[in-house]
Amino acid sequence: MTNLVPLRHRFRSIYGAEPRLFSAPGRVNLVGDHTDYNDGFVLPIAIERRTFVAAAPRADRNVRVQSIQFPKAGQFDLDRPGPKRQNGWLDYIEGMAQALEARGIKLIGADLLVDSDVPAGAGLSSSAALEMAVGLALCSLAGDDKLTRAELAVAGQTAEHEYVGTMCGIMDQLIAALGQPDHALFIDCRTLEAKPVPFARPDAVVLICDTKVTRELASSEYNRRRAQCQEGVSALKSVLPHVRALRDVSLADLEANASLLTETVFNRCRHVVTENARTLDAARALSESNLVELGRIMVESHRSLQIEYEVSCPELDLCVATATAQPGVYGARMTGGGFGGCTVNVVAEDAVASVSQALSGALERTFGKAPAIFATRASTGAKEHV
Ligand code: GLA
Fold it and tell me: How many Cβ atoms from other residues are within 10 Å of residue 194's Cβ?
């Protein structure tokens, strides 16, 4: 984990002021992918990788930003919003600031220094971690805590939609804002209600395998999947008027009305409908510490994402096949948006070394590329370090 002493020190040498320190975690989703934008259910944990923001107030309404990871410093004026979608990390920060102001938070200017050990572009929500850490920092400096954590998360989603141009759901920001140590969160993405589910098995860990496959298709295909789900809803609504989102569709209703949908749209809808049911079952299994059942559901979820939603890739499939053949692995699946990124594995602690070795060996042999693998337990959401 990032050591806070050098960050403080660095901040002082850049800005000549004493900072307050804030952070928010990356996330990994145990079950429930491509359900959040269908008003459905998700079951993520906050991971032990975080984005830190050192922050000090300014007397004006300027925000100056530097990052340990990215060389280019940035600056913007809260009263003169700059152009959107500049394709840089400043989009997230200015987007967050503007989303907060739009919610009635009167911000003050700030000097910020960002440091992160959440790998960028790996599908572990480094962007939501940045948004939540910056959001908490800016609200705290302004002395305004009227936003709930769920509202802070929605502000982050607005920043993504408007400033970054990513039409994400709400899962990533909610878990980064609300994550709890030793718990997954069962989130209803319609009501934004988040229920902690104890991950109370000291003998098991979550092992994350980053294939390092860059998710080139992620954005265009993500939007296409969203449109296909919407197409399904529009068609089903004509005969099932109560349907507002795929959340409201049962498998029986979907199958009875299959003739209204193209085969592709039917498959997309089937994934979402069954994934919602799996997520409910997975939350129950986890709350009963039944990792065997949780693992079984994870593998089913992977198959559905691979075959019906078509968002996996050969590297992710190999990781899941390799992991599930190892002793000590309860379950494995791709996690997040897909087309690369990471798999999530629930693994007996004493099997971490052998499973990691098997995953590295398989990926190197087949694709000539070593993954990055790390174990995590469920961690805490956005917070100030005092
Ligand atoms: C990305 C999005 C999330 C969610 C996942 C898929 O991570 O940011 O909102 O849709 O994909 O579950």
Answer: 23
332, β-bridge pairs = 345
- Rounded CA-CA distance 298/308 in Å is 15
Residues 251, 263: Cα–Cα separation, whole Å: 15
**Is 237 domain-assigned?**
no
CATH number, domain with residue 58:
3.30.230.10
Mutation to probe ligand 1, out of 168, 175, 185, 271 (largest number of atoms < 8 A from CB): 168
For residue 292, pLDDT beyond 80: yes
In the chain, the number of structural domains is 1
pLDDT digits (tens, 9 = 90+) for 247-285: 999 999 999 999 999 999 999 999 999 999 999 999 999
281 by DSSP, 3-state: which? Answer: helix
Residue to mutate, 33, 125, 174, 342, ligand 1, most ligand atoms under 8 Å from C-beta? 33
Q: Is the pTM of this model over 0.70?
A: yes
Count of C-beta atoms within a 10 Å radius of residue 324 = 17
Beta bridge partners of 112: 55, 65
- Residues 88 and 86: their CA atoms lie apart, in Å, by 6
Residue-range definition of the domain harbouring residue 120? 4-198
Quick one: which of 236, 305, 238 has its CA closest to 32?
A: 305
Residue 338 lies in a domain: no
315 lies in some domain:
no
In a domain, 370, yes or no: no
Rg of the Cα atoms in the chain: 21
